[in-house]
Amino acid sequence: MPGRLQAEIKQNKPFPHPTAEALLSILRTAAVLEHHLGEGLKPYRITTTQYNVLRILRGAGQNGMCGREVAERLVSRVPDVSRLLDRMEELGLIKRDRDPEDRRHVTARITEKGLAVLEQATPELEALVRRRFSRLDPEGLQRLIAALEDVRSVG
Amino acid sequence: MPGRLQAEIKQNKPFPHPTAEALLSILRTAAVLEHHLGEGLKPYRITTTQYNVLRILRGAGQNGMCGREVAERLVSRVPDVSRLLDRMEELGLIKRDRDPEDRRHVTARITEKGLAVLEQATPELEALVRRRFSRLDPEGLQRLIAALEDVRSVG
DNA sequence: TGCGAATACATGTTATAACAGCTATTATTG
DNA sequence: CAATAATAGCTGTTATAACATGTATTCGCA
């Protein structure tokens, strides 16, 4: 019997190697999740990356964080944090001030509006995520997390 | 001890729920893989999506495939296959002809050049992938594939 | 102290993704 | 058979990603 991923992407030949199937599984699952999260965030007019930034800046509190630090904490590498933050400032989600201590740094902080968006969006997003993973029991989750960690740590 | 993913994205608070960690694991692992594959394909001046299209069209053989069919088989949804194929045709990787049977269809086929690129790039790409998954034994791979399948199939 | 390296960010440019709307062709159905 | 719907693809537009380069500021060290 052909695998289900093969049916999903309408492939009729078997995978040449299990690693190829694992690779496509990860990429496809991520695409599906990304798309679903994006749909969940649409009412708030923000992207998943912007949501991520909001969470990072909320974590930083009133100290805020400079662009480079934000970039380091993002899930997927973004080589253009300046304009990402530009857009978010334009939307009123964050504000930025040049650090008087080191005038190269620009400290970004989350605004009240940003916090409000975060607080509104998070519950349904978390529900969506829990639902997504509902077929995995705690051990299954931990095994999944560990396996992916193994994949990333090979470098 | 804080998890390794937390260290990777410099997060200092624990994850609120294991599903949140699993989510980020998938997204981050996919980003890392995507980036690595992209690097591996750079010498050939094609993107991972284009590589994917080449494999799909090679699978279709001389019958070729229309744009909609290609779109269905792509790992991540691309709502703009026309221009994706435009670019690939411009690079000489594929050619397109309007189907005389049904003049709405445009049948795309891989060219010799496309085949050559595929044959050149594939071995090192597969090596890269096998290396990535080298820490997982066959059972671990199958469990990973099954877990991700569970995540996708919740809909 | 002064000058090159390093850092943090900004900007310019190109390519691609995402979304909506349009056109040509074929299928459907009353 | 005509009218309408459905299908496949194209085009226009905006937003964002990716990459390279430029600029201001600070650091390090002779």
Short description:
Two copies of one chain form a homodimer. Chain A has 155 residues and is mostly helical.
Give a verbal description of the structure:
The structure is a homodimer of 155-residue chains. The first copy, chain A, is 62% helix and 8% strand. Chain A has 155 residues and is mainly alpha-helical. A three-stranded antiparallel beta sheet of chain A has the order 1-3-2. In chain A, strand 2 (94-98) and strand 3 (106-110) form a beta hairpin. Chain A is elongated and about 60 Å long. Chain A starts with a helix and ends with a helix. At the A-B interface, helix 1, helix 2, helix 4, helix 6 and helix 7 of A face helix 1, helix 2, helix 4, helix 6 and helix 7 of B.
Largest sheet of chain A: 3 strands, antiparallel
Radius of gyration of chain A: 19 Å
- Strand coverage percent of chain A: 5-15%
Number of strands of chain A: 3
Binned, the helix content of chain A reads 55-70%
| Number of helices in the DSSP assignment of chain A | 7
Keywords:
homodimer; 155 residues; mainly alpha; 3-stranded antiparallel beta sheet; 62% helix; 8% strand; elongated; DNA-binding
Would you spell out the secondary-structure blueprint of this structure?
The structure is a homodimer of 155-residue chains.
Chain A: H1 4-8, H2 18-41, H3 48-60, E1 65-66, H4 67-73, H5 81-90, E2 94-98, E3 106-110, H6 112-132, H7 138-153
Antiparallel strand pairs in A: 1-3, 2-3
Helix pairs in contact in A: 2-6
The first copy, chain A, binds a DNA duplex (30 and 30 nucleotides) through helix 5.
